[in-house]
Amino acid sequence: MNRIQKVILEEKIMNEHDEALRKQTAFLGQPKGVGTLSFMQLCNSFASYAMSAVLIYYLYANAPEGLGFSKANAAQLISLYSTVVVLTGIVGSFVCDRILGCRKSLFVSRSLSFIGYVCLALPLGVPGYGIAMGCLAIGPMFGGRCLDALLGKFYDESDGRRDSAYTISYVISNIGAAAPVLSGIIAAALGYHVAFAACAVLAFLGIVVYAVTYKPFFGNIGIEPDDPLPDDKKRSFITKMIIVLVICAVVLATLFATGTLSISVFSNVISTVSIIIPIVYLVVIYKSKKTEPHEKKKILCLVPPFICNAVTLLIWTQTISILAIFYEEKVNRVLFGIEVPAASMQTIPAVFAVIIGSILTAVWTKLGKKQPYGTTKMGIGTIFWGLGALIIALLYVIYPGDAKVSAWWIVLFYAILMLGEGFTCPIGYSITAVAAPKAFMTQMMTIWSMSQSTGAALNTLLTNFYKEGSEIPFFVAIGLGVCAVGVVVAIFSKKLAVGMGLDNNAEA
In terms of Cα–Cα distance, which of 398, 441, 413, 474 is closest to 144? Predict the structure, then answer.
């Protein structure tokens, strides 16, 4: 056997092995690799949600317990982080698609996030916070949406398990999203740094399990970039990226330290840019020579669902910024005779997400080919998100002035939001996996995830118009606007689905 024949034989064996891994049903009817990714997602969501739940209170708590920022600046910093962490994913998806591949990207990005949590766990003050946020923002710069892209690589377009796999990952992720109840209690009893330390521990556990299982469970799936650069260009890009990061860090630190740049101005600038970037990014991919004519139509049809997700994330970002302060100041947080910490209120959506997500997974599986189009689900789900904003407006009517809002209203609010999320969140990545041009799979996942930064950016900009006493018109306008977007997408859902090449069988 000559060398060429040997290489061909090895590739054949490797492909057969990978195909066998894809056909596995050991994890809830899915491949074992999906189980590893789901566990990693659980750990990551635990750390992320736990941190997000207490971070705003840590920011405006007086020193030494907190950092002593104003509540307005704290809310903007939360929205800013939500925006930046997705924006950096643009570069990360490029790195994943063209330099590292999904497997390496996932390990590097999660490791940087772990370092960020460790920095928050240490009493390093504002500098420690800055370093932590830097690590948490830079992490996606090496991975983008690599986990979602890697998950999609276990299925071809005709595999009816794909939607279920994304929904399973979503449900398991939201088990981790129950973390706020723990981080809130830990922060109240032992301090914020101990709560952040718990985030670091869980993030580390996810990395360890991934490192131990990725070889036997993944084979060669996702190990190579989809569209690799030449080796010399890979090294050049990474070197330039590191240099730019260092320069940006030094410049921003100097501007903030000297008072030249304020949090408010910086937030507004970044938010405006983050709305423009996904538009430009989509145009670049649309016009690329690597994008086939039939793929261009798919991209155009993905835009309305993108808008849906952006406006829903606008409302979600409010729950960890404006509404987080609302929970602490205006809500009577007594449930079943127990006063719940403000941060722990954010566990409520996780509970509903698991319950509703599980029910919807069973419903879609039962309906099979008869289930609604993914675009129909996006439209309906968006309407529910808009109704959630209208409930907040209603609360200001029912409980004027200093009157305390019953916590059960917040339970109802989150139940409606999570019903909407059950329709929109897992489906979004699934339809993107189908609509994405083959040369830009991970980058399209990042563009979809940029709907999150777009939503957070919209929230940051709208916060400029939010003033005490203006709550009713503020939330009514948002609620009606979001509902209108959902109605339009639901009406044209069939045309959008057909344009993306979706059918009921593909979405079962």
Answer: 441
When the pLDDT of each residue in the chain is averaged and rounded to a whole number, the result is: 83
CA-based radius of gyration for the chain: 22
pLDDT of residue 7: 46
Exposure letters 246-257 (e unless 16+ CB within 10 A, then b): eeeeeeeeeeee
Q: Where are the domains of the chain?
A: 27-227+259-499
User: What residues are paired with 335 via a beta bridge?
Assistant: 338
Residues whose CB is less than 8 angstroms from the CB of residue 80 and which lie 6 or more positions away in sequence, other chains included: 263, 266, 267, 270, 271, 456, 460
- In terms of DSSP bridges, do strands 405-406 and 331-332 run parallel, antiparallel, or are they unpaired? parallel
- Name the residue with tokens 């939330």: 475
For residue 140, what is the DSSP state?
Answer: G
Hunting for tokens 């490029």 — which residue is that? 94
Burial (CB count within 10 angstroms: exposed 0-12, middle 13-18, buried 19+), residue 369: exposed
Backbone angles phi, psi at 181, to 5 degrees: -65, -35
The tens digit of pLDDT for each residue in 231-275 reads 888 888 888 888 988 898 888 888 887 878 877 788 888 888 888
User: 27-227+259-499: which CATH architecture?
Assistant: Up-down Bundle (1.20)
Confidence band of 326 (pLDDT split at 50, 70, 90): confident
Question: What pLDDT sits at residue 307?
Answer: 93
Instruction: Give the pLDDT of residue 10.
Output: 52
CA geometry: angle at 147 spanning 142 and 150, to 5°? 110
Give me the helix-helix angle, 348-367 and 162-176, nearest 10°.
Answer: 160
Torsion of CA 34, 105, 142, 91, to 10 degrees: -80
DSSP-derived 3-state class of residue 484: helix
Contact predicate 142/232, CB 8 Å: no
Q: Determine the angle formed by the axes of helices 101-121 and 192-218, rounding to 10 degrees.
A: 160
Contact 333, 327 (CB under 8 A): yes
How many other C-beta atoms are found inside a 10 Å radius of the C-beta of residue 126?
Answer: 14
- With beta carbons less than 8 A apart as the criterion, state whether 382 and 312 touch: yes
* Residue 101 falls in which region: left (phi positive, over 0), alpha (psi -120 to 50) or beta: left
Q: What Cα–Cα distance (Å) separates residue 322 from each residue in 328, 351, 384?
A: 11, 22, 20
Q: What is the pLDDT of residue 504?
A: 46
